[in-house]
Write a structure and sequence with these properties.
413 residues; mainly alpha; Glycosyltransferase; 2 domains; three-stranded antiparallel β-sheet; 12 helices; 55% helix; globular
Length: 413
């Protein structure tokens, strides 16, 4: 067996071991809510359950996407059962039967506690439903995804300035309660929401390549290139008013590297060659900036910076996961071995520092020196199996199918 084949097979085996025996196993073992249905809203780092925690739309849609994708690839019935559990809870408790769309948060018993229509959450439901359709062929999931797409186009799309507003009230009327969380600015538009609408629309386009979705997906890519990516720095701008005036000077390295590969994925799905070439040029610049500015010598990706320099030197779990895929994607596009090395270094950092070898799954974050930070949940509205699960799923597919441009001299063992 060649050095290349050994390298590829060993890396795939490491990734699949982590995915199946740690990440997916943890979520199947610890998170189902056997009393109220669905999944528990919060579990502490020491695995203590908070049974009073609300259940989030983000958590449940990300579980649905992850286990649907895992089932599609591995055909393990346990993954299908977990995806179906998420699907049944989402359709049974989060759907607004009166106005359409989904609630943002529900109580442990499933009653709505935050009923606004957060566009980010609707987009994740589209992403999850289209993946569940890909995995199971369940047509009602596809039909619901299409219905949600049309609701967003009707109520959230800005026909004057383009793009999508952050949130609307339960009845889809305008609201001043826009922000995703306490960390986010209360502005009309954000990078984060647009990135995940892009992600959801891309996955839906794979199974429903309609003319109306083609137009919307193309418009999203163009808006991202024109308004959201800073053409001088190749970083995402994060928050905007309705007319795309930038409202923040922060840089999020994790979003930059994540967006670099999601943009390419979207343009590849769309299939317009000229736009794809433009996206690839931009994505390479984004990956280069993230690597040069946001990665330590140990391979870990730092959280945030601004014009003065680094402002958050912790290393959260999700940027590390996105770095593995984003840098490998840059290597596939360029053949430059520095990106392959960066992808491998990110993976090695995860295995050394981010994987929780005592309680399972991954730590929320570690300090710049690799020490786990305190006060973060193991499972929460935002701590889900999607970034790390998706990175593993994505990399096994890329390594298994797309290693033609890997050169043996580039491999560091």
């Amino acid at each position: 067996m060649s050095k290349l084949a050994d390298w590829r097979n060993n890396w795939i085996a490491e990734i699949e071991q982590e995915l199946q025996n740690n990440i997916l196993s943890f979520w199947m073992t610890h998170t189902p809510d056997e009393e109220n249905g669905g999944f528990l809203g919060e579990i502490a780092q020491d695995l203590q359950i908070n049974r009073h925690a609300d259940k989030s739309l983000v958590l449940h849609t990300r579980i649905l996407w992850t286990f649907a994708s895992a089932y599609r690839i591995y055909k393990d019935e346990r993954y299908h059962a977990t995806a179906e559990r998420a699907y049944q809870y989402l359709t049974g408790h989060f759907i607004d039967q009166k106005h359409g769309g989904l609630f943002w948060m529900v109580s442990p018993r499933g009653e709505p506690t935050e009923d606004k229509k957060q566009v980010y959450g609707q987009a994740f439901m589209i992403y999850a439903l289209s993946e569940y359709y890909r995995a199971s062929g369940k047509h009602e999931a596809l039909n619901l995804a299409i219905e949600l797409f049309r609701l967003l186009e009707k109520h959230s799309y800005d026909p004057v300035n383009k793009g999508y507003v952050e949130a609307l009230a339960r009845d889809w009327s305008p609201t001043d309660n826009l922000s995703l969380s306490g960390k986010d600015l209360n502005e009309k538009k954000s990078m984060n929401t647009h990135l995940h609408v892009l992600e959801g629309y891309t996955n839906l386009f794979r199974v429903w390549p309609s003319a109306e979705l083609h137009s919307s997906l193309k418009g999203l890519i163009e808006v991202t290139l024109e308004h959201i990516i800073d053409q001088n720095t190749a970083h995402f701008k994060l928050f905007f008013d309705e007319e795309w005036m930038n409202k923040s000077g922060h840089i999020s390295y994790g979003h930059d590297i994540e967006g670099s590969w999601l943009l390419v994925e979207a343009a590849e799905a769309l299939g317009e060659e000229e736009l794809l070439l433009k996206v690839k040029r931009t994505a390479i610049r984004m990956a280069e900036a993230a690597l040069n500015e946001g990665v330590d010598p140990d391979g870990g990706m730092l959280n945030e910076a601004d014009s003065t320099g680094l402002i958050d030197t912790d290393k959260d779990w999700w940027p590390q996961a996105e770095a593995v895929v984003g840098f490998y994607n840059a290597y596939q596009m360029t053949g430059d071995p520095k990106y392959l090395e960066a992808s491998q270094a990110s993976w090695n950092f995860i295995r050394r520092y981010i994987v929780d070898k005592d309680n399972g799954e991954w730590y929320w974050s570690v300090t710049r020196d690799g020490v786990p930070t305190e006060g973060h949940a193991k499972v929460s509205a935002w701590k889900c199996p999607y970034h790390n699960g998706r990175a593993c799923l994505e990399m096994t597919q890329r390594l298994g199918r797309h290693t033609d441009n890997v050169q043996e001299d580039d491999i560091h063992e």
